[in-house]
Amino acid sequence: MPSTRGATSLAAGQLALELATELPRLGIEPEWKAQQRLWGHPFHPMCSYLASFPAALAHAFIARYSRPGDVVLDPFAGRGTVPLQAGAEGRIGVGNDLNPFAHLLTAAKVEPATPAEARTRLARLRLAWPGAAARWLALGAAIQADPGNGGREPVPSEVALAFHPTTFAQLLYLRDALDLHDHVDRFLAAATTGILHGKSASYLSELMPNTFSMAPRYVRDFAARTGFHSAERDVFRCLGAKLDRLYRAPLPASPGIALLGDARDAGARAAATLRVRGMPDRARLVVTSPPYLRVVKYGYYNWLRTWFLGFDAAAIDATLDDAHHRAPYLVFLRDVLHGLRRALTDDAIVVMVVGDVATDRGRTIHTGMGLAGQVWSEAAAPEGYKLAGVALDEVHAGRKMTKLWGDEAGRATQLDRILVLGATELGRRRALSAAALPIDWTWPPRLRAL
Ligand SMILES: C[S@@+](CC[C@H](N)C(=O)[O-])C[C@H]1O[C@@H](n2cnc3c(N)ncnc32)[C@H](O)[C@@H]1O
Question: What is the pTM of this model?
Fold first, then answer.
């Protein structure tokens, strides 16, 4: 097994050799790498999300392996890349995730507010602000002076110090006013999470980069050391500008479905919801990327966003399945594949992006390499799936969430292996025969193709 550094510098030939002894290669060119960074619908980058994959990767499989009107499912949907891309291509996108933050982002994208709904609601909130401001400014000032605030509105001190007093008061007001069960308010809340922090004037705080929240203790120390004071940012104006960016393109062609729950029973819940809505209740394609082995803490690294949404970051991390060791991880994936079966058509194709992890928070681990092979032999094959092959996606060091742990951890995931499976022999043959199909990379998609 190569060391971390060895893995980083593995030549393409060596990789090919390693694979040749493992799994058959599927001839799908990773054309998604050649597309510009923000290829796809402007809803995709609504809010950054750790370990999300590019919309172009989703397109490479959706365009090849599904037709307009088909159901495309992702049981680990994250920020909703697959269901959104499916909807943008006239498919019915269904995204499931156990993380309420991921669910909110997915729901905002597949059941979005129209531009008129979002702008009208924002205008109402802005108009009501002057009447409400005194109360929220007073509360904000009290919290910033004493984050515990006598238990009235306990806010983590790192949240309180991230914003200018007026911005903070506006956020407290918005947080109170937005009803996350309403699709318009949810869309505004999701858009707000995307502008909470980042290093430019379009963000509400410049304390942290946009990608993820830095560790709270680091933030406190940094703020104390540098005497950090956030510039004043008007939440309504910044959110209005964010809406302009999001609505640069028409809404996705087809609405989709966002489900909140465990991937192990996502199949049954997806089928039931599709049936209730009078839609075809089986997916012809699954495109998904399960949580990486022991890599991401979705609550901890999103604590400012989860605070704004009223979610408990620690509870999120306690529930999600990314802290597994290899053996229970494989059992988990087998359960997921078992549960998916009931929601698949006979000729369904399942595309699984499996990250090969060589380091865990900066430390070398040896269980990640060759993981895709084990996912195939220990999780998919025993559940009766048929292997069409594996496509390769070399992930550039420093890209993705691996930046989290600095330079060394920037090499946490060197190579994604993309397992392409048939639900049956029919699905496997379909996967093989469509693999080499040329697909259209024009964006927005040509309507006649839908
Ligand atoms: C690698 S990410 C998927 C990212 C997604 N492809 C995107 O583009 O945003 C894995 C996801 O699995 C979710 N997850 C972890 N355990 C889960 C479980 N038991 N059931 C459903 N989702 C889970 C995490 O919340 C995370 O969003």
Answer: 0.90
